[in-house]
Amino acid sequence: MVVPSLHEWTGGAGTVEIKPTSRIVVSAALNQIGEEFSDDLAEMTGLELDVVTGASQPGDISLVLDIADKYATGGERYDAEGYKLDVSAEEVVVTAPTETGAYYGTRSILQIMTQTDGRNKLPVGGAVDWPDYEARGFILDVGRRVFSADFVDDYIKMMSYYKLNRFQIHLNDNQIFVDNGDWRESYMGFRLKSDNPKYAGLASADGSYDRADWDGFEATAASRGVQIIPEIDVPAHAAAIIKWRPDIGLNGGKSDHLDLSKAETTEVIKGMFDEFMPWFQGAEVNFGADEYPGNKAQYRQFYNDMAEHIRATGKQPGAWGSFTEMSKGTGMSGVEGYDKDVIINSWNNGWYGLNAAAADKMKFINTNDGTLYVVPFADYYHGNGLNNQWLYTDWLPNMAGGEVVDPSQIMGSMFAVWNDLVDRDYNEQDVHGLIERSFPVVAQKTWTAKAPKVSYAAFNTALDKVGMGPSLGTIKDTTPAAGAVDLATGKPAAATSTKAGHPASNLTDGDQNTRWESADNKAAALSVDLGSVQKVGGIAAEWAANAPAGYAVETSKDGVFWDRVTTHEVAGAGPDQLTFPTTEARFVRLAGLTPSAGFDTVGAWSLGVQGVTNVAVGAVATASGNEAPSLPANQAFDGNLATRWSANYNGTRWIAGDLGKEQTVNEVTIAWEGASAKDYTVSTSKDGSSWSIVATKTGMPENKRTDVVSFVPVTARHIKVEVQAANMGIYLSAYEIEVRNTDVTGLGITGTLDGEPNITGALDGETNVDGIFDVEPTVTLAATGAAAADAVIEYRIGNGTWTAYTAPFAVAGYQPTLVDYRATSGEEAFAGYVSLALNTPGASPSPEPTEPVVTDEPTEPVVTDEPTEPVVTDEPTEPVVTDEPTEPVATDKPTEPVVTDEPTEQVVTDKPTAPTVPAVTDKPTVPATTPAAMANGLASTGANVAMLGLVGMLLLGLGMLTMIRRRSARGGHEG
User: Fold this and answer.
1) Which of 206, 226, 455, 763 is at a distance of 20 to 30 A from 581, taking alpha carbons?
2) CA 66, 68, 74, 75 torsion: positive or negative?
3) Active-site residue numbers?
4) What tens digit of pLDDT does each residue of 914-946 get?
5) What angle do CA 611, 612, 615 make, to 5 degrees?
6) What residue ranges are annotated as transmembrane (predicted)?
């Protein structure tokens, strides 16, 4: 699907592959858009397409500007921002009457391609697309919190990806309440920095934007269809301006309100606007004008003077609606006496709501506080983010606080972040985490303003693939993918082979638009350091078009001894999910990555290491009740942290899930909303009737949190959480309930190496300058896991006979030596290896090595099944058009912040610091030993067992690894 969804889509048969030989064909007027599209395609798909003019060829993507292009159904909105997208077997064509429309067409192509396997296909068909509303956007208060220029620039890019077109930047403000009415020492901010000495001291010392910063914002916005709307807020919220000019403030400069009784005040403010007006390239400038409790006649005059002055500079003035409140006691009503040629943000029904603005025939935008305000981490105004699920399913832009106007009467809608809590410790990334999924939701409902056909859960699943767009440097999608517990994000990754510009770190950076690629014709291994030993149960990768044929999964607790867990054949480009029995590991490695037929390299967009599988995803849910039909119990078992269950208000509150079959479980994880449980029990049952309490929790803290509840392993089919007391009275809600068995099963080997001095479990002992041991090392092996008691451990040196392991053994000689070792128990098998260097007493000397010598590298396994082209089934669909929107419950309380049941705190978890990834050598990690040889080795023991993995190896030899240098006690070189 496309976000926001396409207005019209007519599907055809099959898909079209965009190839490296395809081109982007543009007219001269669209050259800049074409170049940007080319860059974005390279980043998001790996395809590097040339931008050309002239006639198109089969396989090309053409961008066509046709000012005569019309579409009656879309009307004037199509004329301003619409486009057509036609995909056939011959070519892909975007046609639009404006540059903005053409640009939006490229965003849709990017989003569709990122959802296909290989990121290189488009479904055959045609789309016609346009917005339902003119105004679609976001307001950011930078006056009371510093946001970096790079962050602002990223937000412009992200908004354009979702076709949001208005970014209002609230440039000045101050804290709300102070002692004794004196704002002079309060926190305040003004974020524009002029080099004109006249305005020295106006900009805030803790952060501001200079002309170069602002020019950068405007340039980024202009090429992407986004309008920057600067807002300098006067005559209230003006403490920073009054600090610069105390003489124009009320109460001798102690107030945060301007003194409008002085004619000079208005002239000073006009001059200040004039100083920055040349910076502003957009059509509109907002002058605030909200919440001023002073003289109403003076306020009205100031309002009119500022509107006229801004208009005289060639800009459209904008302001926050205050007419209902400011007309009280004046003998006038509403907008009477005010300049009406001003675009109004309707923010509160008491100050000036939708109905009043529509009745006055104003140009206005729905920015309702009770619906669309976020005050980060406050206990009012959605302190933990908007109710995105309700906005997506029930809200429309012409609705606010129980008031509904005709869609034709309103310009659109914007949501806002207000940083009221100036003393709270949070940063721009924390804010982003609260609102990142609100952008696509508001985009969806302002572009295609109808009840969506796709569920909210499916919408979020699509967003996991669509992402936030290209060219982002400071922000990332922090919302966990549905059902996933990825342990690798943000952890160090390494590769034995890397193409310049595409390092392994791109696999775990959380950015789905960066990728790793191997060097030409090089086998590769990838490794991830999880930072500490963790329970792992799978791999989740997204392979690029140059996917490998297959790989082996190896794990290690210490980076020295490695367990071969399984081998895997890759079906082709796209998502690749692999699960295996739970094992404990700190390091996870994919070995034997070789290019598939037709490719010289291997590439991947991401590599995840999955935690223990959540067996409750899709469980059949029952509950004591729901707060509303849109918040049912099954949403606590859908694997999606963006949806939630909200309980009934009264009586016993409980929720249960049927796992579908009996299984062993020992852990339940509950992600509570702010309306969390204080006292509760966890019970299990085999039949859903007879329950046993396995865990009890009491006195749990308030606010949003995640509880991990462990208990003795039990066999159960049903899980129930029953709440005895809630932290927010009648309110109780949970995002997700997860059920796992975290017991480690299977079979593994751990080992130690003993030399002189002793080496225990890792290669951190003393060696000579060549990085080799001075005496014969001793290898100690031990079986681990549930099957260890019955395990048989064997080893062989070189290609010798498999020998039963009974005691530690020494390895002699200085020539390269292979040592394989394995353990078997019933039908389970394990193989592993360790790398070290050896120099026994009296061994022949060797030249001092400068680089590791690579000789006779192991042969990679041959994979004969070449991947076939996947079928793309996720085609954009036309949303269902319903009749009338459902009105939300009116909760308007005009002069006070709306207090919601939203959570007020984020979960803070202690994550271990990730240490350095162990060095990965250029040697392929797939051993030369074949499955057949392993089977023969097993047969020699007389045991009739099946080997499930390839044998690992122990590399022993002079100069194979460079170790920690030391001054040798046995006559080695000085280092």
Assistant:
1) 763
2) positive
3) 291
4) 333 333 333 333 333 322 222 222 222 222 222
5) 130
6) 945-964
